[in-house]
From TrEMBL:
Organism of derivation: Vibrio aerogenes CECT 7868
Protein name: N-formyl-4-amino-5-aminomethyl-2-methylpyrimidine deformylase
Cross-referenced NCBIfam families: DapE-ArgE, PRK06837.1
Pfam families in the record: M20_dimer, Peptidase_M20
Residues of the Peptidase M20 dimerisation domain: 204-314
Origin organism lineage: Bacteria, Pseudomonadati, Pseudomonadota, Gammaproteobacteria, Vibrionales
EC number: 3.5.1.-
Keyword list, A-Z: Cobalt, Hydrolase, Metal-binding, Zinc
Length: 423
C-alpha cells in the first residue's frame, strides 16, 4: 500500500472518532442480554443500511440447525424477534478477496447493578475509556468494522470484493447465531471477529462445554441431618473431583502445543447454582451450571465420558441422585494456521498502522471463529480492541484502541479486498 493512501485511510478513520463514540454509546445503551437483543439489532440494522449494504435478518431455526455440526442445545427456546443482522456489500467488479466481518451483539448479564460505579447500560466516557456492559465484549468491535467501512466510503472508496457484515446473537451461550448465518450460505475468503483481545491476532481457541448437574437428595428437618441427604454436601465433593480433573488437564504433558506457555489454560467454572428452599431443611434439590474448557483436538464425546466417569466416581449417599444435562455450549476447540494469508495480512495491517509487531494469541475461551474455521471453509481470526473487566463490573473499552482497530480493519480491507471508486 502506498504511503499516501495509508495516511488518507488513517486520517479518515481518525475523523470518525466521535462517530465511533456515539455509535458505541447507542449500542451499549441497549440491554442486549439473552432474549433482549432486538433493540440493539435494530440500531445496527440501520447502520448497515446507511453503509449501503443489502440487509437481511436471519432467524435461528432450531429444527433446521439441530442436525448441523457445531450446533449447541439452546438455553432458551424463545426465537420470536431474535434475529441476526447481515449486510452484504457487492462491488461493481469483484477483483479482490471476499471478507466476512462478524461480531456478536449479545452480552452477558451485568450482575447486581448497584455494584457498578454507574448503571451498566448507561454508557459514559472517562478519559480514554468507554464504560458499560458489552462496551468491550464486543460492541466496540462491531462499531470498529462499521466505521472502517464508512471511513473508506468517506474517501470515495468501497471494497472491490464482496464484504459481509454480520451482527449475530447467542455467541455467549451457544454460537447458534453464527451457525444460522453459516447455514444461510454466508462464507468468504476470510472472516475477522474483532473480539476484545488487546489487538492480538487469534491463532487458537479452546473448546467449551456447558453442563448442568441436577442433584436430587432427601429433605429432612435439621434436628437430625443424618436422616436426609444434602445436595450441597454432594456438590462440594463433586466440585473437588472436577477441580482435580482440571489440574490434570493443566499438567504440561496433557497440554496442546498452542497452550504450552500459559499459566493456567484450562478452567472449570461453577457459574450458577439454584437450589434448596429453607435454611432449616436439608437441601434436597439443586441445579449447578458448569463450564469446562478443553484443548483443540479433544472430542466432545470423550469429554462427556470423562466428566461422567469423574462424577460417577464420587461416593454419594444411596438416596442421592446426580444427573447430567448438556445445554448451551458444546463447542469444539480449534487451531488456526499461523502462516495463513489471513493471519499474515492482519499482522501486516497492524504493523502498518501501529508500527509495532502484532502478537498472536491462543485464547483460553471460545469464539464464533470455530464456525468459519471448522465448518464454513472460511479461514477466520479475531483482532479487536483493548478492554477490561469483560464479564465483570465496570466493563470498559479503550476508545483509542477501538479507533486503531478501525484503522487496522480499514487498511486490511484495502489490502485484502482491494478498493474501487464509489458512485
Ligand atoms: Zn465476545
Amino acid at each position: 500500500m502506498n504511503t499516501t493512501l495509508l495516511s488518507q485511510i488513517l486520517d479518515s478513520v481518525e475523523k470518525r472518532r466521535n462517530n465511533i463514540i456515539t455509535d458505541l454509546s447507542s449500542l451499549v445503551a441497549c440491554d442486549s442480554t439473552l432474549g433482549h437483543e432486538a433493540a440493539a439489532q435494530s440500531v445496527i440494522k440501520q447502520v448497515f443500511l446507511e453503509l449501503g449494504t443489502r440487509v437481511s435478518e436471519i432467524t435461528i431455526d432450531l429444527d433446521k440447525l439441530s442436525s448441523l455440526p457445531g450446533f449447541s442445545p439452546p438455553v432458551t427456546n424463545k426465537t420470536d424477534g431474535r434475529t441476526n443482522i447481515v449486510g452484504v456489500h457487492t462491488p461493481k467488479e469483484a477483483t479482490g478477496r471476499s471478507l466476512i466481518l462478524n461480531g456478536h451483539m449479545d452480552v452477558v448479564p451485568s450482575g447486581p447493578a448497584h455494584l457498578w460505579n454507574h448503571p451498566p447500560f448507561e454508557p459514559y466516557v472517562d478519559g480514554d475509556w468507554l464504560y458499560g456492559r458489552g462496551s468491550g465484549d464486543m460492541k466496540a468491535g462491531i462499531v470498529a468494522y462499521c466505521n472502517a467501512f464508512a471511513a473508506l466510503k468517506d474517501l470515495g472508496y468501497q471494497p472491490a470484493a464482496k464484504v459481509i457484515l454480520q451482527s449475530v446473537i447467542e455467541e455467549e451461550c451457544t454460537g447458534n447465531g453464527a451457525l444460522a448465518c453459516l447455514d444461510a450460505g454466508y462464507t468468504a475468503d476470510a472472516a475477522i471477529i474483532p473480539e476484545p483481545f488487546g489487538q492480538t491476532c487469534l491463532v487458537a481457541q479452546l473448546g467449551v462445554m456447558w453442563f448442568q448437574l441436577k442433584l436430587t437428595g432427601k429433605p429432612a428437618h435439621v434436628l437430625d441431618t443424618s436422616s436426609g441427604s444434602n445436595v450441597f454436601d454432594a456438590l462440594y465433593l463433586i466440585i473437588n473431583r472436577l477441580k482435580a480433573l482440571e489440574s490434570e488437564w493443566n499438567q504440561t504433558d496433557r497440554r496442546h502445543h498452542c497452550y504450552a506457555s500459559h499459566a493456567h489454560p484450562i478452567n472449570f467454572n461453577l457459574g450458577k447454582v439454584h437450589g434448596g428452599d429453607w435454611a432449616s431443611t436439608v437441601a434436597c434439590y439443586c441445579e449447578a451450571d458448569f463450564r469446562v474448557g478443553f484443548y483443540p483436538g479433544m472430542k466432545l464425546d470423550d469429554i462427556k465420558n470423562e466428566l461422567e466417569q469423574v462424577i460417577a466416581s464420587v461416593e454419594l449417599p444411596n438416596d442421592l441422585k446426580a444427573e447430567l444435562c448438556y445445554t448451551g455450549f458444546q463447542a469444539e476447540g480449534c487451531e488456526i494456521n499461523k502462516d495463513a494469508p489471513l493471519i499474515e495480512s492482519v499482522k501486516e495491517a497492524h504493523r502498518l498502522v501501529s508500527d509495532t509487531h502484532c502478537e498472536t494469541l491462543a485464547v483460553t475461551a471460545t469464539t464464533d471463529c470455530r464456525f468459519f474455521q471448522l465448518y464454513g471453509n472460511t479461514p477466520a481470526t479475531c483482532y479487536g480492541p483493548v478492554a477490561e473487566n469483560i464479564h465483570g463490573f465496570n466493563e470498559r473499552v479503550s476508545v483509542s484502541s477501538t479507533v486503531q482497530v478501525a484503522q487496522v480493519l480499514a487498511v486490511f480491507i484495502a489490502n485484502w479486498c482491494g478498493l474501487e471508486k464509489t458512485g
